[in-house]
Amino acid sequence: MVDDKVANPTAFGAITFGFALILLSLYFAEILDTNGLGVVFATAIFAGGFAPLVAGLWSLKNGNSFGATVFILGAVFWFSYVAIYFLPFLGFVPTVSEPALFMWVQVPYFFLWGVFGFFLFLSSMKTNRVLQVFFFLLALFFWLVAFGHWFAWDTWHNTGIANTLINILAGFEGVACGFIGIYYGVALLLKDAFKRDVMPLGVVQKT
Fold first, then answer.
1. Does residue 2 have a pLDDT over 60?
2. Neighbours of 106 (CB within 10 A)
3. Could you read off the pLDDT of 8-38 as tens digits, one per residue?
4. What is the pTM of this model?
């Protein structure tokens, strides 16, 4: 008889998503400049895009609708974010001339992803505290970036200088969120290896 048991992909999906989020956040925090965009985009495509996509399809095989939704839509975010930069470069859509204006057109994009993150936070109420904190910070990250992009455009429109202070704050918040995602993935990995809880997750007691 063939053993068709499928492993849980949540650990590697969470870890790779966390890696991608940290590097993007370092760019927003202005720790990485435009010279580091190659690293950010490469990580976004493979660690943020392909890896969670595989984890999402894997979760479908396991019958885990929540995990599949989180990982597949997470992959959609990373692929679409990279496309925002590369489609104009490849000539498929017009290029936005002013950097601040380019930030402005991304405001609704990040705001809507924040709404999605908030619904994930609500959906995680019966899981564990680490996952709850992760999704809350993820929603907050998207909303901070949306507001930061709007604020940068507004200050540029009125003064000619784009103020990126809120984006910098969003970047540091995103780094924290990314590390929590990695923590969650490593905790699951160690639990599977040692067959017991090694790193606490704050599991919510079901009533």
1. no
2. 17
3. 899 999 999 999 999 999 999 999 998 988 9
4. 0.92
* Residues 47/75, Cβ–Cβ less than 8 Å: no
| Helices assigned H by DSSP within the chain | 10-28, 37-43, 51-61, 65-90, 99-104, 107-123, 129-159, 165-194
Q: What is the pLDDT of residues 146-170, one digit of tens each?
A: 999 999 888 887 776 778 899 999 9
Take residue 93 and report the two structure tokens written for it.
């859509």
How far apart CA 95 and CA 113 sit, in angstroms, is: 23
Coil/strand/helix, residue 200:
coil
Q: What is the pLDDT of residues 66-122, one digit of tens each?
A: 999 999 999 999 999 999 988 887 777 777 767 777 888 899 999 999 999 999 999
Domain spans in the chain, listed from the N-terminal domain onward = 10-194
Q: Which pair of structure tokens corresponds to residue 171? A: 């970047």
- Give me 23's structure tokens: 């590097």
> How many angstroms separate the CA atoms of 67 and 52, rounded?
10
Contact between residue 40 and residue 32 where contact means Cβ atoms under 8 Å apart: yes
List, in sequence order, every residue forming a beta bridge with 33; answer none if it has no partner.
Answer: none
Integer Cα distance of 104 and 52 in angstroms? 28
Q: Which of 65, 32, 66, 28 is nearest to 142 (CA)?
A: 28
Token pair in block for residue 94:
């017009």
